[in-house]
């Protein structure tokens, strides 16, 4: 019998309150000086391009599927394991389900940040016939946090199967060829953001029970007002959720419906934060996106999502007083005006 033990003394967000939140805490004078150097090139390039230049940059990075690099995805098509026929899953870094699970395929990829080779698992929203696979993956990978960025139904279309328990349905059982997974509701509450934020997020504590008596507690964040192919308010909400999940040792599971648009936006934001925290210069945004797409194909679907990432990052830098040089805030004000017109 193996059991994965969680931290004790958790606060309202499922994490030890004594844990330093390295992104949202105020930087020291020395840290601020260092961070100003790190962000200089990124900020300069972003404010030179402004939203029209960034939209042109995004449109030049065409999305496509190279099915020679997605053989397992193609083979899984006939078994109904893929939500969308045109959203592929790369072979080179896909998550493989191991024994005693009856098959290895799941539409999910590991995605790295500079300091963590398996920081994320990006996956599609579970289908009725992939719920057991999803929960076994979480158990296998010792996932402590799940980010759900879509709703079950959006604009009249089914985007996700009801795969996780709630107060109304507190225990759910899933089975795949004789292997059973039980998922139990423990508690839920509206996530209370430290900073002012418009996002509506429900945090649910869940207990997973699987083969060989393995158990795992995980925290499920359901962001229920992030529009499909659109963007939410560019405040600090997503950075705070990432800050909460960052100390976890296992991968953070992120999914929307296809697992590439809203999901890719979250991954790109953490990539930037990871470079900031680890003291690296922040890469150009287009280079970051290429690196992410090499791991999760076609990540970030719209120019609005690409702009959103930049706006959140710039807002964060400004909040941390990292953009105080002459003319920078004025340029950012102009960026904000153009951003609002671009993402309507």
From TrEMBL:
Compositionally biased tracts (Basic residues): 1-10
A single MF term (Gene Ontology): protein tyrosine phosphatase activity
All residue ranges annotated as the Tyrosine specific protein phosphatases domain in the record: 236-307
Pfam family, one: Y_phosphatase
SUPFAM superfamilies in alphabetical order: (Phosphotyrosine protein) phosphatases II (SSF52799)
All copies of domain Tyrosine-protein phosphatase, residue ranges: 54-316
Signal peptide annotation: none
Region of interest called Disordered, as start-end residue ranges on this chain: 1-31
Protein name as annotated: Protein-tyrosine phosphatase
Cited CDD domains: PTPc
């Amino acid at each position: 019998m193996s059991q994965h033990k969680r931290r004790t003394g958790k606060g309202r967000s499922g994490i030890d309150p004594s844990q330093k939140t390295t992104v949202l805490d105020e930087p020291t004078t020395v840290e601020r000086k260092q961070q100003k150097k790190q962000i200089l090139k990124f900020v300069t390039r972003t404010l030179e391009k402004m939203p029209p230049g960034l939209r042109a940059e995004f449109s030049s990075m065409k999305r496509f599927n190279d099915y020679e690099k997605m053989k397992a995805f193609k083979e899984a098509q006939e078994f109904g394991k893929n939500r969308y026929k045109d959203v592929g899953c790369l072979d080179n870094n896909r998550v493989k389900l191991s024994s005693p699970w009856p098959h290895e395929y799941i539409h999910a990829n590991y995605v790295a940040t500079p300091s963590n080779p398996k920081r994320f698992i990006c996956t599609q929203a579970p289908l009725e016939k992939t719920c057991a696979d999803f929960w076994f993956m979480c158990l296998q990978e010792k996932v402590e946090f799940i980010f759900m960025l879509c709703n079950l139904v959006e604009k009249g279309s089914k985007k996700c199967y009801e795969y996780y328990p709630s107060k109304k349905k507190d225990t759910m059982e899933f089975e795949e060829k004789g292997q059973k997974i039980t998922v139990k509701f423990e508690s839920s509450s509206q996530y209370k953001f430290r900073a002012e934020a418009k996002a509506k997020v429900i945090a649910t504590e869940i207990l997973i029970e699987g083969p060989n008596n393995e158990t795992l507690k995980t925290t499920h964040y359901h962001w229920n007002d992030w529009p499909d192919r659109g963007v939410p308010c560019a405040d600090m909400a997503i950075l705070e959720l990432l800050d909460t999940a960052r100390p976890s040792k296992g991968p953070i599971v992120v999914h929307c419906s296809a697992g590439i648009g809203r999901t890719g936006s979250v991954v790109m934001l953490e990539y930037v934060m990871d470079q900031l925290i680890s003291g690296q210069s922040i890469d150009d945004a287009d280079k970051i996106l290429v690196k992410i797409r090499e791991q999760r194909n076609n990540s970030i679907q719209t120019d609005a999502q690409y702009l959103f990432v930049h706006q959140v990052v710039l807002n964060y830098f400004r909040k941390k007083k990292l953009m105080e040089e002459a003319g920078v805030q004025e340029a950012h004000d102009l960026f904000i005006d153009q951003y609002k017109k671009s993402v309507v």
